[in-house]
């Protein structure tokens, strides 16, 4: 089903306003969720609106919570999100980081007591739009079973990294450090599809193709969960994926003195983030650096293709192409999500 961007944006913002957000906060949530759907990232689009509504009702999210700088140096910030809306806190933090990077060449921020912020790439992209290299990381609910364990303690902890290029779009690597994020299991579940073997394990630690089972076990903290990048055990380097999950956990919750993933969503969200921006100008001529990166990108694209493959991509490319299509033809959302949104509209007495 296709819906016009503006309609989806206005509706999402109206829902957040009805839940107590001011215009600015409502707008940024709408923008980040709708951007995800526009890019084809349906795991993190408007389908997540119901969760935010519930989190506000359960007081996990304070719709009026404002971020507060609790420590600052010329190039770093430590921010307390005061349990506010994740997208608002993240945008505020990345803006501060960008200011520092523009002034001193680098900027970094840790954030604690925040909430789910949507696609990590949105904030890395804010930096790249200003000509900077951008990094955005977050921890999450406990969702990932680390190598040789069958208990989810760590998060799907995404890494987003944006690098400026001299073509229309930057390189935008935006990925969970697990084989799949929880959101992808939600997509499979609402479409009544089995997940591939190797994405997740059940409470016994064995691979399962049943997304409902994994999601329900995770909700009840009953055991099992998503596998780190590389999958189960050490054979395909699951231990290296586990290392990446841990790296994100330490830069977010570790540096911010915030809650580790296993202590999130106990009363409040308590999610932590890390943001960084780097001005290429502190290493040389930014235009030359962009051109240099282009040489690499073009070499990668024009490499000999594997049998049966017609095109080689770089990171971000698929999503940017999908975004252009969405702008032209409307934003694609699946049927269950469409009906869910209409239900939210009905429950909150908001026109759809
Ligand atoms: N807020 C949170 O708590 C949270 C947690 C986990 C994930 N997420 C978000 O979930 C979203 C989806 O994550 P994902 O891991 O499913 O991403 P994905 O697997 O769909 O894509 C990962 C990256 O690979 C790139 N890519 C895809 N196919 C490619 C190819 N053939 N060649 C080169 N590059 C290719 C994409 O452009 C993207 O940068 C991300 O936006 C992430 O930030 C958020
Ligand atoms: O679902 C979460 O809480 C984290 C993230 O958005 C994910 O999809 O893994």
UniProtKB/TrEMBL annotation:
Pfam families per the record?
Answer: Ldh_2 (PF02615)
- List the keywords (alphabetical): Oxidoreductase
User: Which superkingdom heads the taxonomic lineage of this protein's source?
Assistant: Bacteria
Q: Give the Gene Ontology MF terms in alphabetical order.
A: L-malate dehydrogenase (NAD+) activity
- The stretch of residues making up the signal peptide is none
Tell me the SUPFAM superfamilies matching this sequence.
L-sulfolactate dehydrogenase-like
Q: What is its EC number?
A: 1.1.1.37
Family that this chain belongs to: Belongs to the LDH2/MDH2 oxidoreductase family.
What is the name of the protein in this document?
A: Malate dehydrogenase
Give the lineage: Bacteria, Thermotogati, Thermotogota, Thermotogae, Kosmotogales
């Amino acid at each position: 089903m296709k819906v016009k961007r503006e309609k989806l944006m206005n509706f999402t913002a109206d829902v957040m306003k009805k839940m107590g957000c001011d215009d600015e906060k409502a707008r940024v949530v709408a923008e980040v969720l709708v951007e995800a759907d526009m890019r084809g990232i349906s795991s993190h689009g408007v389908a997540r609106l119901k969760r935010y509504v519930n989190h506000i009702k359960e007081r996990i999210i304070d719709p009026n919570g404002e971020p507060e700088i609790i420590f600052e140096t010329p190039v770093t910030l430590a921010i307390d999100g005061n349990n506010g809306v994740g997208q608002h806190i993240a945008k505020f933090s990345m803006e501060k980081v960008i200011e520092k990077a523009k002034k001193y060449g680098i900027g970094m921020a840790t954030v604690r007591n925040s909430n789910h912020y949507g696609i990590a790439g949105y904030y890395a992209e804010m930096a790249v739009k200003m000509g900077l290299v951008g990094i955005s990381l977050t921890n999450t609910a406990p969702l990932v079973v680390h190598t040789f364990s069958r208990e989810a303690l760590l998060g799907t902890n995404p890494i987003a990294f944006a690098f400026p290029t001299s073509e229309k779009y930057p390189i935008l690597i935006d990925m969970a450090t697990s084989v799949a994020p929880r959101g992808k299991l939600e997509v499979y579940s609402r479409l009544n599809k089995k997940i591939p073997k190797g994405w997740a394990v059940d409470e016994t630690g064995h691979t399962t193709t049943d997304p409902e089972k994994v999601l329900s076990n995770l909700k009840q903290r009953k055991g099992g969960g998503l596998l780190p990048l590389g999958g189960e055990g050490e054979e395909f380097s699951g231990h290296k994926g586990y290392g990446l999950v841990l790296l994100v956990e330490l830069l977010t919750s570790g540096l911010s003195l915030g809650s580790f993933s296993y202590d999130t969503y106990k009363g409040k969200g308590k999610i932590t983030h890390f943001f960084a921006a780097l001005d290429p100008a502190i290493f040389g001529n930014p235009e030359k650096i962009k051109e240099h990166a282009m040489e690499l990108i073009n070499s990668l694209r024009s490499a000999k293709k594997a049998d049966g493959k017609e095109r080689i991509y770089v990171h971000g490319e698929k999503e940017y192409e999908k975004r252009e299509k969405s702008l032209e033809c409307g934003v694609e959302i699946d049927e269950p999500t469409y009906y869910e949104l209409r239900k939210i509209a009905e429950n909150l007495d908001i026109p759809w």
